[in-house]
Amino acid sequence: MRRLTRWSITCGLLVSLPVAAADVPAARLIVKPLLCVTESQSSVCSMTFDIRWESDVAAQFCLNDSAQGAPLQCWTSALSGRHRHERVVSEAFVYWLGLQGGVQHLAEVKIEVLRLDSSDRRRERRSRHVWDVL
Amino acid sequence: MLRSCMQAYENALKFAALWAVVSLAHGQANDPPATPSFTPTTASAPAPAESHWRLGAAFGYGQRSNPLIQSEDIPVLVDLDIAWFGRRWFFDNGDVGFTLSDGDRATTSLVARLNSDRVFFGKTNTRYVNLAYAGNGQTAGMVDASGEPVTEPVEVQPPDRDYAVELGVESLIDGNWGAITLRAFHDVSNTHEGYELGAYYSWRWIAGRVSLSPSVGFAYKSAALNDYYWGVHADEASPALPEYHPGDGFNLEGGLVANYHITRHLRFALSVNYERLSDEIAASPLAEEDHVFAYFSGLAWTF
Question: Which residues in chain A are closer than 8 Å to B261, comparing Cβ atoms?
Fold first, then answer.
């Protein structure tokens, strides 16, 4: 628990907020990395995600990818878990933790995509005023 | 101190303007509707349309050197980015453009801008000197019109120069190999009555959250343009500042922008740029250095 907390702080990661109702277990989900930086609309990122979760109450938790119908992995009567997921990222998606067979997101983390190019190449032009140094 | 106060005041005005524009743009930006934070995405979902606005602000520390004699380097603490792109018209940090053609490989626009040489003449100091400026940062003994040595200190005030409004054509060409910018501008304000041609090449390299964008290029400046800004005209000449009329020449430049993307909107940015002034400019008594070096490092936010 303490190690996981320290790990999340050290890495500066986004720790998802519990979204569970009062009668379902609260859970936390930690994912690294959180951002795919790519050049163009057609480019993708090949990424390996390190996903950790923990809960105060043991239950049958499942880790899900919003772009996939089936859970990535399920745990039985577990308080925490870890999963490594290799994935090609072309658009934003969500990792979420829920109870087995359930649709409620006990915790979720959004993976975002930053595309540096633009369909309008005028946005790439560099003006030459004195303050423009970027 | 005065320069810092002036810049702080100018930045405050820019910042107020930026926030006003942000507020205005907020209603037009493509923000998602108020739905739950989780929205499943599918592989076939179309990319969201871009906002017409590009707004950003960078805070940090940087400097642009000033090659003009008796002047100070230009500090850069805030770099604001205010741009709007319509189907044809656009505004980009002071430049106003009208797009003539937009193809798969190139976009060509008619652009109006202010000349960039004028910024070096904004804040200058008056000094009494007993040596003549000889260009390239060198000095020589002062002589009068008859060639006799001058021993008394002479007051030197760098001459005033006006902003020139320039109109020209700009083509942006890109591909997997990088991007090329071609520019041709002519004075339309009867200020220097010269012209400038430029070509720049840049490319981008991405590794994880880091993006690097090196660039190289040149600007050819006509004799009329160089003479207006960097010449010492007959009515400005003195024993300390001999008359000088530069010809045309090429300025060469290279730069690198490095970004570490912390989130989609926030990045740590580092930028360096070196511009080698043409020999004709560097040899001017008004030029203390033969180059302009600029750098900046700080946090940049894109709205």
Answer: 35, 37, 114
